Amino acid sequence: MKIKLLILGFLFILAHSNAQTVGGNTVYNFLKLSNTPQLTALGGINITNQTHDIGLAFNNPALLRPEMHTQTTMVFNSFYAGIKNYHLMSGYHANALNTTFAAGINYFSYGSIAETDMTGNVLGAMRPADYVVQVSATRQYGERWHYGVTAKFIHSSYGIYRSSGIAMDMGIAYADSANLWQASLVAKNMGAQVKQYTGTASGDLPFDLQLGISKRLAHAPLQFSLTFFQLHKFDTRYNDTLFNNETGLAQDSKEKKYIFDKFFRHVILAVQLYVGDKVEVTAGYNYLRRKELNITNAGNGLNGFSMGVGVLFKKIQIRYARSYYQNNSSYNQFGLNLRLNDYFGSGGLLNRAGNK
C-alpha cells in the first residue's frame, strides 16, 4: 500500500511539473553538481548504482541501506578559478525504528572577490558561498522495495545578496539481488525560496525527475547503468538565434526536428569494472554536457566523458574521479569513505546505539 501511494505521488508530481523552469533560469543551480567522486565518474547523475557508497544516497535517499550504519564520506573537489567544494555525509541505522537515517552538507566556496559599487570603486572584499544541509530517512518495504525522503535547507551568500530555501527529494528503488539489477525513480528539489535575493523576485528551484536502471552481469565483472533525467520536459534545447545566425547554423534549424538530439540530452551512460573485490574502475558519458559545452567547428576532446577509480580496503575506501568539461579542461575530485564503528570498535558508542 505504501509503495502504491508513493507511485501515485510521483505521477502527481509528473502531471504538475511542466510549470517548473528548466536550464539556467532557476536558483541554487549548484544543487545539480556532483558531490562525490563515484557520482562524478558515473557521468554526474546516477540513482541506481549497486555499490554501498553512502555518497550516492545524497542524491537518492532510497539508496540508503542498514549496512551504511556509521559510514561517513568526506570529499574535496577542486573546480576552476580557485572554487572549492567540500562534502560530508554520514549514515545511522536505528533498529528500533526500522529506519536508516543520513545527514550531510555540500559546501561551495568561491574564494575572495572584490566588492565594488556601480562605478567600480572597491568597497572591500566578499567571500561568496553556497551550501545545502540535508537529512534523509529510508525504510524497506517487502524484500525488494526501498523508499526514502530528504529534507533540505539551502543558502546562498554573495555579499549583500543572500537567499535561503527549503526543498525535498523523494526516491523509490526496486532491487532484485538475485538477478543483479536495480531501478529507481527520484523527484528532486521540490521546494521554494523562503528568502529572496535583495531586489529580485522569487525563483524556481532546479526540479528534476529522474529514472534509472543498473544491471550487473552474472558472469563478468561489469555493471552497466542507464539514467534518464529532466523527464518532466522533453525539449531542453536552447535555441540561441543570434549565435546561430552569426555562425551560419540557423539555415537548417527550421527543417530539422532534432528528435535524436532531444532524446539523448536526457540520457547518461555509465559502466563499472570490478577488478577483484578491491578495485572499481568507472567511466561515464554525459551527452547533454558535451553538446552544451562543445565549441562549434573545434576539437572538443573528451568533453562530456568522466572516469574514476575506487580502492576498497577493509576499513577505508579511497575514490578519485576526473571529469571533462571542455577540450584540455577537467577537474579532479577526491573522497574517503569509512565506517566510524570500525574505529570505535565493536563495543563503541555508535555501534551500540545503532543496534539497540
List keywords for this structure.
14-stranded antiparallel β-barrel, 356 residues, 16 strands, two-stranded antiparallel ribbon, mainly beta, globular
Distance between the amino and carboxyl termini: 28 Å
**Whole-angstrom Rg:** 21 Å
Beta content: 35-45%
Q: Helical content, roughly?
A: 10-25%
Major sheet: arrangement of strands = 1-2-3-6-7-8-9-10-11-12-13-14-15-16
Extended strand count: 16
Order of helices and strands: HHEEEEEEEEEEEHHEEHEEEHH
Stretches where pLDDT is under 50 for at least 5 consecutive residues are 15-19
How would you characterize this protein structure?
With 356 residues, this protein is mostly beta strands. It is 14% helix and 45% strand. It is built from seven helices and 16 strands. It has helices spanning 2-15, 37-41, 241-247, 259-264, 287-293, 340-344, 349-354; strands at 71-78, 84-94, 99-109, 113-116, 122-126, 129-141, 145-158, 161-176, 181-195, 208-216, 222-228, 267-275, 279-286, 305-312, 316-326, 329-339. Strand 14 (305-312) and strand 15 (316-326) form a beta hairpin. It is globular and about 65 Å long. Mean pLDDT is 87; it is low at 15-19.
Give the helix/strand layout.
Elements: H1 2-15, H2 37-41, E1 71-78, E2 84-94, E3 99-109, E4 113-116, E5 122-126, E6 129-141, E7 145-158, E8 161-176, E9 181-195, E10 208-216, E11 222-228, H3 241-247, H4 259-264, E12 267-275, E13 279-286, H5 287-293, E14 305-312, E15 316-326, E16 329-339, H6 340-344, H7 349-354
Antiparallel strand pairs: 1-2, 1-16, 2-3, 3-6, 4-5, 6-7, 7-8, 8-9, 9-10, 10-11, 11-12, 12-13, 13-14, 14-15, 15-16
